[in-house]
TrEMBL record:
Protein name (database record): Cytochrome c domain-containing protein
Recorded superkingdom: Bacteria
Gene3D superfamilies, sorted: Cytochrome c-like domain (1.10.760.10)
Spans traversing the lipid bilayer: 7-28
Length: 103
Protein backbone atom coordinates (compact mmCIF):
# COMPACT_ATOMS: atom_id res chain seq x y z
CA UNK A 1 0.00 0.00 0.00
CA UNK A 2 2.68 2.44 1.07
CA UNK A 3 4.74 1.49 -1.95
CA UNK A 4 1.82 2.13 -4.31
CA UNK A 5 1.24 5.58 -2.87
CA UNK A 6 4.91 6.47 -3.30
CA UNK A 7 4.82 5.26 -6.86
CA UNK A 8 1.73 7.33 -7.61
CA UNK A 9 3.43 10.36 -6.06
CA UNK A 10 6.53 9.81 -8.14
CA UNK A 11 4.48 9.50 -11.32
CA UNK A 12 2.66 12.73 -10.52
CA UNK A 13 5.97 14.50 -9.98
CA UNK A 14 7.31 13.14 -13.26
CA UNK A 15 4.13 14.30 -14.98
CA UNK A 16 4.47 17.77 -13.53
CA UNK A 17 8.10 18.05 -14.59
CA UNK A 18 7.25 16.90 -18.11
CA UNK A 19 4.45 19.45 -18.19
CA UNK A 20 6.86 22.21 -17.21
CA UNK A 21 9.26 21.14 -19.93
CA UNK A 22 6.53 21.71 -22.49
CA UNK A 23 5.45 25.04 -21.06
CA UNK A 24 8.82 26.67 -20.47
CA UNK A 25 9.90 27.24 -24.11
CA UNK A 26 6.88 29.48 -24.55
CA UNK A 27 7.38 31.35 -21.31
CA UNK A 28 10.94 32.43 -22.08
CA UNK A 29 11.31 34.68 -25.14
CA UNK A 30 14.66 33.36 -26.38
CA UNK A 31 15.62 34.31 -29.95
CA UNK A 32 14.53 31.43 -32.19
CA UNK A 33 16.88 29.26 -34.20
CA UNK A 34 14.46 29.55 -37.12
CA UNK A 35 16.35 32.61 -38.36
CA UNK A 36 19.38 30.39 -38.98
CA UNK A 37 19.17 31.12 -42.69
CA UNK A 38 20.43 34.61 -41.79
CA UNK A 39 23.30 35.31 -44.14
CA UNK A 40 23.07 39.04 -44.81
CA UNK A 41 23.92 41.71 -42.19
CA UNK A 42 20.27 42.81 -42.30
CA UNK A 43 18.99 39.30 -41.66
CA UNK A 44 21.43 38.87 -38.79
CA UNK A 45 20.57 42.21 -37.21
CA UNK A 46 16.89 41.41 -37.67
CA UNK A 47 17.27 38.02 -36.00
CA UNK A 48 19.17 39.42 -33.04
CA UNK A 49 17.10 42.59 -32.50
CA UNK A 50 13.56 42.09 -33.73
CA UNK A 51 12.50 38.96 -31.94
CA UNK A 52 13.63 39.92 -28.47
CA UNK A 53 10.23 41.44 -27.60
CA UNK A 54 7.87 39.47 -29.85
CA UNK A 55 8.18 36.57 -32.25
CA UNK A 56 8.99 37.11 -35.90
CA UNK A 57 5.43 35.90 -36.68
CA UNK A 58 4.29 39.27 -35.37
CA UNK A 59 6.35 40.89 -38.13
CA UNK A 60 5.71 38.38 -40.92
CA UNK A 61 1.95 38.62 -40.35
CA UNK A 62 1.86 42.43 -40.14
CA UNK A 63 -0.96 43.68 -42.36
CA UNK A 64 -1.07 47.34 -41.35
CA UNK A 65 -0.33 50.29 -43.62
CA UNK A 66 2.98 51.47 -42.12
CA UNK A 67 6.15 51.10 -44.16
CA UNK A 68 8.97 49.01 -42.70
CA UNK A 69 10.89 52.23 -42.09
CA UNK A 70 8.02 53.58 -40.03
CA UNK A 71 7.72 50.27 -38.18
CA UNK A 72 11.41 50.36 -37.28
CA UNK A 73 11.12 53.94 -36.02
CA UNK A 74 8.11 52.84 -33.96
CA UNK A 75 10.04 49.89 -32.52
CA UNK A 76 12.85 52.24 -31.53
CA UNK A 77 10.31 54.31 -29.62
CA UNK A 78 9.28 51.08 -27.86
CA UNK A 79 12.91 50.60 -26.85
CA UNK A 80 14.45 48.52 -29.65
CA UNK A 81 18.19 49.05 -29.53
CA UNK A 82 19.78 49.37 -32.95
CA UNK A 83 22.20 51.65 -34.75
CA UNK A 84 21.35 53.73 -37.84
CA UNK A 85 23.22 51.23 -40.00
CA UNK A 86 21.33 48.30 -38.51
CA UNK A 87 18.03 50.11 -39.01
CA UNK A 88 18.82 50.54 -42.71
CA UNK A 89 20.00 46.96 -43.09
CA UNK A 90 16.93 45.61 -41.35
CA UNK A 91 14.62 47.77 -43.46
CA UNK A 92 16.34 46.42 -46.57
CA UNK A 93 16.01 42.86 -45.29
CA UNK A 94 12.32 43.28 -44.46
CA UNK A 95 11.55 44.89 -47.80
CA UNK A 96 13.19 41.95 -49.58
CA UNK A 97 11.75 39.22 -47.39
CA UNK A 98 8.25 40.61 -46.84
CA UNK A 99 7.74 43.15 -49.66
CA UNK A 100 5.27 45.92 -48.97
CA UNK A 101 3.65 48.09 -51.61
CA UNK A 102 3.52 51.31 -49.65
CA UNK A 103 6.66 53.36 -49.32
C1 LIG B 1 11.82 46.78 -27.17
C2 LIG B 1 10.89 45.76 -27.61
C3 LIG B 1 10.71 45.59 -29.12
C4 LIG B 1 11.66 45.32 -30.06
C5 LIG B 1 13.16 45.12 -29.86
C6 LIG B 1 10.97 45.24 -31.32
N1 LIG B 1 9.63 45.43 -31.13
FE1 LIG B 1 8.17 45.27 -32.55
N2 LIG B 1 6.76 45.59 -31.14
C7 LIG B 1 7.00 45.91 -29.81
C8 LIG B 1 5.76 46.22 -29.15
C9 LIG B 1 5.62 46.63 -27.68
C10 LIG B 1 4.75 46.08 -30.12
C11 LIG B 1 3.28 46.36 -29.94
C12 LIG B 1 2.67 45.28 -29.16
C13 LIG B 1 2.36 44.14 -30.02
O1 LIG B 1 1.59 44.33 -30.96
O2 LIG B 1 2.84 43.01 -29.76
C14 LIG B 1 5.41 45.66 -31.35
C15 LIG B 1 4.74 45.38 -32.53
C16 LIG B 1 5.37 45.16 -33.75
C17 LIG B 1 4.69 45.00 -35.02
C18 LIG B 1 3.20 45.04 -35.23
C19 LIG B 1 2.78 46.50 -35.35
C20 LIG B 1 1.31 46.65 -35.57
O3 LIG B 1 0.90 47.83 -35.71
O4 LIG B 1 0.59 45.65 -35.61
C21 LIG B 1 5.64 44.86 -35.97
C22 LIG B 1 5.43 44.69 -37.47
C23 LIG B 1 6.93 44.91 -35.30
N3 LIG B 1 6.73 45.08 -33.95
C24 LIG B 1 8.15 44.84 -35.95
C25 LIG B 1 9.38 44.91 -35.31
C26 LIG B 1 10.64 44.91 -36.01
C27 LIG B 1 10.83 44.87 -37.52
C28 LIG B 1 11.61 44.96 -35.05
C29 LIG B 1 13.13 45.05 -35.26
C30 LIG B 1 13.58 46.31 -35.84
C31 LIG B 1 10.95 44.99 -33.75
N4 LIG B 1 9.59 44.96 -33.95
C32 LIG B 1 11.59 45.02 -32.54
C33 LIG B 1 8.22 45.91 -29.20
C34 LIG B 1 9.44 45.65 -29.80
Amino acid sequence: MVLKKTLAGTMMLVGMIMGLMFVSPYAVPIPQAQEASADTPGAQAFASVCNTCHSTDRIRDYQGDKSWGEIITLMKSFGALLSEDQAKEIEQHLQTTYPRDKK
